[in-house]
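INFO batch 0412 | record 1 of 1 | parsing
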Amino acid sequence: MTVAAAAPFREILPRNMLPLGFGSGALLSKRRTRREALKLLEAAMDCGVTYFDTARMYGAGRAEGILGELAARKRERLVLASKAGIVPQSHALHVRAMGRSIRLLHNVAPSSKNYLPVPSNYLPRFGAFGLVEFRKSVETSLKELRTDYLDILLLHECSAADVEETDLIRLLDDLKREGKVRAIGIATGIEETVSILQRHAALFDVVQIPNAIWNMNVRKVPATNRLVITHSSLTSRFKILLDRLLSDERMAAEWRSLTQVDPRDSTELAHLLLAHALNANPNGIVIFFSSNPSNVVANVRSVSSRAIDEKQIAGLNALLARKHVAEFLDASFRDLSF
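INFO prediction complete | emitting tokens
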């Protein structure tokens, strides 16, 4: 399985490129060291992943630097996509001062922990599309990623109003002309994406949206020859689905019958959902993440070997069309953004 890239991307995306991208939004955590995070990236690359997605804000501004360690050694093997528009502010003084005060209160009145949590020092700032700030963000990304250019630059959580700023559009053109960016796109919610494309479709080469079986946002994107990238087919919501299948024998039996996959096996279920996401976006890229190197390899091998076939995907589509399944998904995920 490879990406069937439209003409504008044939120079950017390698021929026979695997249509899987590895995301770094959750690359760093309190339980994962920098070295462990790098090993995840290396595991993805070593088993065939070419496309790596990151952003200036990820990991409080540190994720790009870890990916940069890999890019410094293997830049020619990587397609790098980053985002600008959200600025990491990991050292907000007023937040740290507030945190110290709340910790003191917790010592004096322990019950206050139940209703007054310590705020995070990391407060990202959205809407950072001012010309000076935006260019600085891109230049910082290039420095952290240890590269002279980004294959793709995405406007992070932008609105239709943001992209109507002619000075910003001129800056994007300048970055392309300077060779610092090869393609420009948007990475935002489905409603804003549709709104932007209805008014400014010609401005962008790439669209990145959340997509999963409970929303199928990819079907809402207007038909186009631009590159469509989806993410969030496997998220924390996956556990909600798995828990339901573990507790509901009838639904589990339906899944097993129609998809020939044991829905109570988290690995098999993940492979099914990933294959479904790729099938729904046949000429694009699907971003995934796993915190376990062995799961990274297993996911990639599942896609490369076509472990899930068209009949199984058709079975899942038939299942999703059943009223009680649709009602469960709607009730479980209605209020979630992706």
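INFO post-check: The longest helix spans residues 93-108.
INFO record closed
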